[in-house]
TrEMBL record:
InterPro entries registered for this protein in UniProt: Tag1
Transmembrane regions listed in the UniProt entry: 25-45
Keyword hit for Transmembrane helix: yes
Keyword Transmembrane: yes
Keywords attached to this entry: Membrane, Transmembrane, Transmembrane helix
Name the UniProt record assigns to this protein: Uncharacterized protein
A cellular-component GO term for this protein: membrane
Length: 529
């Protein structure tokens, strides 16, 4: 049969249309066959990308139940996960922690199953057992965390992610976790007290006991780190001055283990004041000098031991720096001076070469809970930056410079009980060293106000607890007042005195000042009437 023109084209077009659906179905079938393969290849890559792009932020980790090589850790963690088309969970696993990628593992942490939901910011509470794998690596991390503002841990763990109920994919978690450091545990001493040791066994307190003084210290300690330790355990510290001299030993209450929560907490320690060998005695002397004079002292504590074995391994030898505040309570309340008008007249006489010596009672206040004895006094008194007097007393009979020939009762150490305020039962001699003009100014001030304020700079040899030492004591404001004898028995009458009465010895006031400046010296303030 002969084909008409145009029929060939129609037949060709028809056969092409029949072949095209077959081609489409072949492609679709090929895609269906390849889809499982594509999913098997791309799903793990996609799952790993999800893990790698996620972020973990650690809030606070509570560490409890410490054993020799393990502890329970519960951490508040925020996971920032990309948005997911279906619910994703992760099976429980064991994570490995180290200080560097591929470095020595310092410990492992058992992590429970986690539900990431559909992604976004997910708040998680991860808790489990932390087991130490390298004590040395953990100790190095603890030292870095104690001293630094921020530290990092490398966390690695195998994870099995479950996408809904259909798909489970293994991935690997590799993350750097930024953690807050302790910044050397900033602290502030709230109170410190030095007291007598409990003598026990019938032994007397000073001057009979040789037991060391007890230190009671209360401090506010701030823990800014990501770790709270509950409990830390009983803590033992040695206390040193900046040059390394040992001056004390402190401990926390063994029956109430010390806790170190996040943020600020109040800690109480108790121990003894130590003065070992000559260097320790000098350091204790400087410490007491600064403390009693109101000056702060820089100290550091060394962790000697912790009752919890794990923390003892981590923290023993760690240094904690602090500042001991100066005591803001004066030792010398006032000086009560007895004025003898005959002595003053003799002293003002340019023909008399004897120094002016005044009797002074000392009003002493003991701000400490420890008794002490003053064995020697070498004090210089200043008024308006001019030295106007001095008191030098050797009160200890065993001192080679002790003078038993002094008028009145034999000199003896001034023993002051804890928190006691007393006025010495006898007066002590004070030598006047000021010019007549200065003494005249002081007596005018005393007459107007009833008191004169001077500065005392002293070297005091004291005995307390189990040691004797000499301290430098500065008191910027000492009140000098007239001494009034008690009414019974009544004090003998005292003739009135004034510097104006001395004018008969001199031609005029300027000449008086010149003669006095060349000649005699006087002691510090006294009551003139």
């Amino acid at each position: 049969m002969q084909t008409l023109p145009g029929e060939a084209d129609d037949v060709s077009l028809l056969s092409g249309r029949q072949r095209f659906p077959l081609r489409k179905y072949a492609y679709a079938l090929l895609l269906l066959l390849l889809l499982p393969v594509l999913l098997l290849v791309s799903a793990p890559v996609t799952a790993q990308l999800i893990v790698d792009s996620s972020e973990l932020t650690v809030g606070l980790c509570e560490v409890s139940d410490p054993a020799a090589d393990s502890a329970q850790v519960v951490c508040a963690v925020t996971a920032r996960v990309p948005s997911l088309p279906m619910r994703v969970t992760a099976d429980g696993t064991t994570a490995r922690a180290s200080r560097s990628a591929g470095g020595t593992s310092l410990g492992t942490l058992t992590v429970p199953a986690v539900d990431f939901g559909y992604g976004g910011d997910v708040a998680l509470t991860l808790g489990g057992e932390m087991r130490v794998t390298s004590l040395q690596a953990l100790r190095e991390f603890a030292a870095e965390a104690q001293a630094s503002e921020e530290v990092s841990l490398r966390l690695e763990a195998p994870l099995l992610l479950r996408f809904g109920l259909m798909l489970s994919l293994p991935v690997t978690l590799r993350k750097w976790l930024p953690l807050r450091g302790a910044q050397s545990f900033p602290n502030h001493i709230l109170s410190v007290d030095i007291s007598d040791a409990d003598p026990g066994g019938g032994r007397e307190r000073f001057p009979g006991t040789r037991l060391p003084n007890v230190i009671s210290l209360t401090a506010e300690v701030r823990n800014p780190s990501s770790f709270a330790l509950r409990p830390l355990g009983a803590l033992n510290l040695s206390v040193h001055t900046p040059d390394g001299a040992l001056v004390g030993r402190l401990s926390s209450n063994a029956s109430a283990p010390l806790l170190l929560p996040s943020g600020a907490s109040v800690q109480r320690l108790r121990g003894v004041l130590v003065a070992e060998k000559e260097a320790g005695l000098e350091a204790a002397s400087r410490l007491l000098s600064d403390h009693l004079s109101g000056r702060p002292s820089h100290l550091y504590g060394v962790v000697e031991s912790v009752s919890t074995p794990l923390y003892d391994s981590l923290f023993a030898g760690m240094r904690l720096h602090t500042t001991l505040p100066g005591l803001q309570a004066p030792l010398l309340d006032r000086v009560e001076v007895v004025v003898d008008s005959r002595r003053l007249v003799d002293w003002a006489n340019p023909l008399d070469g004897r120094p002016l010596v005044l009797d002074a009672y000392l009003a002493i206040s003991n701000p400490l809970a420890a008794s002490f004895a003053v064995m020697r006094i070498d004090s210089h008194i200043f008024y308006n930056d001019q030295r106007v007097g001095r008191m030098q007393l050797v009160l200890d009979a065993s001192d080679p410079e002790y003078d038993a020939r002094l008028d009145g009762p034999a000199l003896a150490p001034i023993v002051v009980s804890p928190r006691q305020q007393l006025v010495t039962g006898r007066p002590y001699p004070c030598i006047v060293e000021g010019s007549l003009a200065t003494i005249n100014q002081m007596q005018t001030e005393m007459r107007q106000h009833g008191t004169v304020t001077v500065v005392a700079r002293s070297e005091l040899k004291i005995g307390s607890g189990d040691f004797f030492t000499t301290i430098s004591y500065d008191q910027p404001a000492v009140s000098v007042v007239p001494h009034h004898a008690p009414p019974y028995p009544p004090a003998p009458p005292v003739a009135p005195f004034s510097f104006e009465a001395l004018n008969g010895f001199f031609n005029h006031e300027w000449e008086e000042m010149t003669v006095r400046d060349r000649g005699k010296t006087a002691s510090f303030e006294w009551p003139l009437r």
